[in-house]
Amino acid sequence: MKRRLAVVEPPAGLTLRVSVLDRCQYRCGYCLPGSAAPFLAASRWLSVDDYGRLARAFGGHGVDKVRFTGGEPLLRRELPEIVAAFRDASPSCDLALTTNGLLLTERLDALVEAGLRRATVHVDSLRPERYRALMGPGDVGHVLEGALAARRRLAEVKLNVVVQRGRNDDEIEEFLAFSAATGVEVRFIELMSTGSANDYIAQVFISGREIVARARATPLPRTRPSDPAARFLSHDGVAFGVIASDTEPFCDACVRLRLTADGRLRGCLYEAPGVSLRELSSDALAERISAALRAKRSHHPSVTRTQEPFSMAQTGG
After folding, report:
1. 264, 50 in Cβ contact below 8 A?
2. pLDDT band at 192 (very low <50, low <70, confident <90, very high)
3. DSSP-assigned letter for residue 297
4. Residue 298 burial (10 A CB sphere; 0-12, 13-18, 19+)
5. Is 0.85 surpassed by the pTM of this model?
6. Which sign, positive or negative, has the C-alpha torsion 180, 184, 189, 195?
């Protein structure tokens, strides 16, 4: 039986993750954009006007934080206009971005002007050759420069690191040292079972508990109960996060909704296919969002036996 979430229709405090496209310059071994389903044609992406209409609708349903994702969201030319659409619809909404950072330096000014407040940069290695081997043909030095430039302009910048046994798990201390030197908090992420890279994940999976043990860390309170990252303090006093979605799911505290690039709303990352929000009247749109909130369930593999394979780029990681 699928687990029903404790909060069925939260009055406020919802987070909306907005995937603006499903493409990425990289093909990380656990994600593999385009492997589970063909890429969407650009003509199927929501337009800036679509986002403005949806932003107004979600603002009326208690969404107070929006995170823009992909694929790689900075590949979407209109991203600053999309961010601004949410800012204009809900001026108090907290606007954030998850990115691989390759284009962050070049696009930072426009995003700050559009209202972006936070960014999370995905970096799986601090070592240039290993970074290219794990992620793709990019310059980790340039990415980190972008992250530090963003930290000077935004309220908060974090690094996301997908920890992989035998690939980068020997860099945990290096990332913590980087965090101590720069003030950019690191979040170590446990691989998730999406069904699109099972063999790879089986080879390199490492649990959140082992990551904490490697850092010789003690627990800290979560910033908010609904935050995906549990927080810890390393043995030498560096705060960091761990997202252990696979072994320690946090479904009962989840306040996240997900909007795909073609306008489908999901109440859970693992939910397929979601409900379409395209081309609805204002009244129909409001009712469909309300119905999706009432129907919000956990579809995590731990509580259901069936799963449709997907890549993180496809649904918005």
Report:
1. no
2. confident
3. B
4. buried
5. yes
6. negative
